[in-house]
Prior knowledge:
This protein is about 60% helix and about 0% strand. The chain is mostly helical. The protein has one domain: ACP-like (Non-ribosomal Peptide Synthetase Peptidyl Carrier Protein, Chain A), CATH 1.10.1200.10. It starts with a helix and ends with a helix. The relative contact order is 0.21.
Amino acid sequence: MIKDKIIEMVKEELLTDEIDINADLTNDYQIDSIGLIEFVMSLEDEFNIEIADEELQELRSTKDVIDLVESKVK
């Protein structure tokens, strides 16, 4: 469920119907740092979690986002 929700959120952010969960969000999908920060803020709101700046720097792909959020939602 978390995975599906995150994939839908990424699709909405990228305005696309298809994504590769292993693709690099900044290089392959051209999400800039401000866009990534805004996306992370929406994840924090959606899942009622906090993502530290250090963790934000480690997020490269949708799979990274899924893994991080799943580790925080208990």
